[in-house]
Design a protein that fits this description.
alpha/beta, four-stranded mixed beta sheet, 28% helix, L-arginine/glycine Amidinotransferase, Chain A, 18 strands, Agmatine deiminase family protein, hydrolase, Peptidyl-Arg-deiminase_porph, single chain
């Protein structure tokens, strides 16, 4: 019997569902709970137009409340499955499963250690979330591999054919004792990648993930990369994101061709109580037949959606209001995790 040939699928491949956790008064959303729930309702409405949604809830009361809001918005509850589990926060891109597939209907859940973004926040319950979902039977017969190495899903991008894109700033913060070569070895082993592409530049003020790649640059079909640019020469991000753009232009595909690059427009600074928030258009979510794009109430929202549509042809673009999310330093992609087709019933 041959061993499975695992790979990390690209996000644009067929999906079974999207996984989220509902915000509640016991999370950091408490102060603005009603406001952020409007985003979660809009997200649920958008996802369930195209596929199933799995919603983790803290208890029966949170479920009942979420159902009431969703029903009032006309969301099709038959396309939603609720799972009761404890969680610290709702950033499931980082605490949810990174799923490998072998092409023959077998799956392996890569369960990396979740440290609350390098110990910035409590994360004990979030670190146990994947095991809880496995015990709840969400993933059928999928294998579950616990990996004692800190990594968040938002810190990596996969093209589905063996290339993984990441940032040195993030992973060197998580593993200051390791060299780049050592981290290459861990990532290639655990993700079954053929190569790791590193960016040394790029950050967003107000982002406490230490420059997650999903706030900066995303693989897209047809050897494309969509990335957050800054065209305001007076903005403190301008030079750093320009250097990142140069790094992306220097990358080559496995066939030694340059990637087709799609720079995204720059939203005007959003300041909340003296603090600048990280409004990245690169933090979009791909689902079956559509791309869900963050909108921040900025003049360039529509231009960002148009560019993302160009990079993801033949998909409907749906804008989701995400200004409430960036108050807690993340956006649309950060609160979601896609699950590959066949992983859940």
């Amino acid at each position: 019997m041959t061993e499975p040939r695992w790979r990390l699928p690209a996000e644009w491949e067929p999906q079974a569902a999207v996984l989220i956790a509902w915000p509640h008064a016991g999370t950091d959303w408490a102060e603005r709970l009603a406001e952020v729930e409007t985003t979660y309702v809009a997200l649920a409405a958008a996802v369930t137009r195209f596929q199933r949604l799995i919603v983790v809830v803290a208890d029966a009361d949170v479920r009942t409340h979420a159902e009431t809001l969703l029903r009032a918005a006309g969301v099709e509850l038959a396309r939603i499955r609720f799972i009761e589990l404890p969680y610290d926060d709702t950033w499931l891109r980082d605490s949810g499963p990174i799923t490998l597939a072998d092409g023959d209907g077998n799956f392996q859940l890569a369960d990396f250690r979740f440290t609350g973004w390098g110990g910035k926040f409590g994360a004990e319950q979030d670190d146990a979330l994947i095991a809880g979902l496995v015990d709840a039977g969400v993933f059928g017969k999928a294998g579950h591999r616990r990996i004692d190495w800190a990594l968040e899903g938002g810190g990596i991008e996969s093209d589905g054919v063996g290339s993984v894109l990441t940032t040195w700033k993030c992973l060197s913060q998580r593993h200051p004792e390791q060299s780049r070569a050592a981290m290459d070895a861990v990532l290639m082993d655990s993700l079954h990648a053929h190569r790791i592409l590193w960016l040394d530049h790029g950050y967003l003020e107000g982002d406490d993930t230490d420059a997650h790649i999903d706030t900066l640059a995303r693989f897209a079909p047809g050897e494309r990369i969509v990335y957050q640019a800054c065209n305001d020469a007076g903005d403190k991000h301008h030079d750093e994101l320009a250097r990142m753009g140069d790094e992306l232009a220097a990358l080559r595909t496995t066939d030694d061709r340059p990637y087709r690059l799609h720079p995204l427009p720059w939203a005007q600074p959003i300041i909340d109580q003296g603090r600048r928030l990280a409004a990245s258009y690169a933090n979009y979510l791909i689902v079956n037949g559509a791309v869900l794009v963050p909108a921040y109430g900025d003049a360039v929202d529509d231009e960002a959606a148009r560019i993302i549509a160009t990079a993801h042809p033949d998909r409907e673009v749906v804008q989701v209001p995400c200004r409430p999310l960036i108050w807690q330093n993340g956006s649309l992609h950060c609160i979601t995790m896609q699950l590959p087709a066949g992983l859940v019933d």
